[in-house]
Amino acid sequence: MNRMKLIYLIILSAIVTTMTAQNDKPLRLGIAGLSHGHLWEVISRLDRGDFEVVGIAERNTKLWNNKTLRAKVDEKLFFEDINEMLDKTRPEAVIVYESIYDHLRIIEACAPRGIHVMVEKPLATTTEQAKRIAELAEKYNIMVLTNYETTWYPANHKAYELINNQGKIGKLSRINVYDGHEGPVEIGCGPEFLEWLTDPLLNGGGAVVDFGCYGANLTTWLLKGQKPLKVTATLKQLKPQIYPKVDDDATIVLEYPETTAVIMASWNWPMGRKDMHIYGASGYIYQDDPTNMRIYADKKQTTTVAEKLPTPYNDSFFYLKAAVRGEIEVKPTDLSSLENNLIVVEILEAAIKSSKTGKAVELDR
C-alpha cells in the first residue's frame, strides 16, 4: 500500500469515526410551547437518552410549573421569548407544542437560524400559512416535519406494503378512515389546551381539523401523494353547549380518479378510535388498531398482528433525530413530509369551505 493511499484511508477513517460519534450524541432539542395536550410525549422520553432538552420557550409562565418537566429540566432553560431561547441554547431542532396557528410564528423564528422543526398535526390552519412555511423551509434549507400518532402504527405500514408493494387487494376503490373520541372536554383535556383547541382561529376548526387531518394524511400517503380532484364535507355541531365556536363532527369525502376516500372525524363518539377500512378490486384490509388487522385476499379472510417497526421508524423522536443527523431521507410522499402535509391543509380548508357553501370544492392541480 503506497503512502498516499494509507493517508487517505486514515483520513477517511477519522471522518467516519467523527460522524459516528456526532450521531451518537443526544439531539439538542428545543421545546416551543407547553400548552399542547401531547406534551406528555416529550416528558415521557426525557430519560431515554436520544435527545437532550436544551431550552423551552413559553410565553405563559404559569405553564412553567409542570412538576415533571421542572424536575428534569433546569429552570435556567425556561424562556418567555422564542428568539432568546434559540440564540442562547442553539438547539439542532425544535418541537412545537403551541396552537396550530402559532406554528408559523415558531418556524419564522427557527428557519433563519437553520433550525429544523417538528410540529404536532396538522401543519397549519390555512393554506396561506402552509405556503409561507414551505417558502421558509426552502429558503433556509430546513426540514419541517409533522407528527401524527398514526405515523408510528405498524398496521398502517403493513397495509401500505400489502397495497402498494404487493398488490394484495388490487386497485384501490375506497378508503374509509375513522378518527375520533368522546370530545376533548369529555376526556379531560386541560384548560390551557382547550383554550385554543376549541378556537376556530387558533386551531382552524374543531373535529374537522383535530381528527380530519389523520385521514387526509393517511389517504394522501396511501395514494402516493395524489391530490383529490374535489372535496365535499358536512360539519356539524352536535354539542353546541360544549363547543359553541367549532364543529364537533365532520364527514369529508375525497374524490380521486379511481378512488373515493371518506374521512369520519368526531368529538362525539362513545369511545376513541383510529382505524381504517381499505377496499380494493379483489380484497380489503381492516386496520383495527395500531397492530391488529383483518385481511381479505385470495378469497379468504385472515387476521394478523403487524410486526414492530424498526428504529427510527417507530417513534417520532427517534425519527426526528435520524432525519436531522442525515441518517435517513424524508421522502416527499412520507407521512411526516412537508409535501404530504401541504396537501392535508388544502383538504381541510376545502372541507370547511364545502360545508359552508354546500358545494364540492375542486383543488388546484
Describe the protein.
The protein is of the alpha/beta class and 365 residues long. The protein is 34% helix and 23% strand. The chain has twelve helices and 15 strands. The chain has helices at residues 3-24, 40-43, 67-72, 82-89, 103-110, 127-140, 154-165, 191-197, 207-210, 212-222, 316-324, 338-357; strands spanning 27-32, 51-57, 78-79, 93-96, 116-120, 144-147, 172-180, 230-236, 249-255, 260-266, 273-280, 284-287, 292-297, 300-305, 361-362. Strand 12 and strand 13 form a beta hairpin. Helix 6 packs antiparallel against helix 12 and helix 10 packs across helix 12 (338-357). It starts with a helix and ends with a strand.
SSE diagram, text form:
Blueprint: H1 3-24, E1 27-32, H2 40-43, E2 51-57, H3 67-72, E3 78-79, H4 82-89, E4 93-96, H5 103-110, E5 116-120, H6 127-140, E6 144-147, H7 154-165, E7 172-180, H8 191-197, H9 207-210, H10 212-222, E8 230-236, E9 249-255, E10 260-266, E11 273-280, E12 284-287, E13 292-297, E14 300-305, H11 316-324, H12 338-357, E15 361-362
Parallel strand pairs: 1-2, 1-4, 2-3, 4-5, 5-6, 7-10
Antiparallel strand pairs: 7-11, 8-9, 8-15, 9-10, 11-12, 12-13, 13-14
Helix pairs in contact: 6-12, 10-12
Signal peptide: 1-21
Domain GFO/IDH/MocA-like oxidoreductase: 165-285
InterPro entries: Gfo/Idh/MocA-like_OxRdtase_N, Gfo/Idh/MocA_oxidrdct_glycsds, GFO_IDH_MocA-like_dom, NAD(P)-bd_dom_sf
